[in-house]
Amino acid sequence: MVYGWRNGAVRFDSTATEVLKATNVVATYLGVKIYVQHVHRMSEELAELADILSRKIGHTWADPRLEKKPGPGLSLWLQNPVLNGSLPKLLIKELQSKFNI
User: Fold this and answer.
1) What percent of the chain has pLDDT over 90?
2) CA 83, 87, 33, 56 torsion: positive or negative?
3) Any residues with CB less than 8 A from the CB of 66 and at least 6 apart, and which?
4) What is the mean pLDDT of residues 71-89?
5) Under a CB-based contact definition with an 8 Å cutoff, are residues 58 and 78 in contact?
6) Is residue 61 within 8 Å of residue 69, measured between CB atoms?
7) Residues 63, 68, 14, 76, Cα dihedral to 10°
8) Cα separation of 85 and 101, whole Å?
């Protein structure tokens, strides 16, 4: 994902590309800067969780280590990704309703 973040796209993975683009739009909306850093696979707990979520088919959010689960909008979107640029609007609406921003 580090290379995808730098390039703005993940080669051969349109869903990851859509998530990266949406993350960038939401960060811009919030006025924050995102820093992405490479860590070796399975080298620490967060890297292990990322590996589980990105590589295992049929994963769930049931792992108790996943304290901060995605909001319902992202969870539903990930179950049936629609690659039409609607994800940023969905995430911003969810943030607005949850945090009154």
Assistant:
1) 30
2) negative
3) 49
4) 87
5) no
6) yes
7) 80
8) 22
Coil, helix or strand at residue 8 = coil
Nearest of 19, 36, 3, 8 to residue 91 by alpha carbon: 19
- Alpha-carbon gap, residue 35 to 68, rounded angstroms: 19
Surface-to-core class of residue 5, CB atoms within 10 Å of its CB (0-12 exposed, 13-18 middle, 19+ buried): middle
Alpha-carbon span 72 to 84, nearest angstrom: 19
Task: Residue count of the chain, please give it.
Answer: 101
Mean pLDDT across the stretch 12-25? 90
Strand, coil or helix: 84: coil
Query: Is the entire prediction scored with pTM above 0.85?
Result: no
What tokens does 24 get? 């960038």
Structure-token pair, residue 33: 């800067």
Q: Decide: residue 48, CB within 10 A, 0-12 exposed, 13-18 middle, 19+ buried.
A: middle
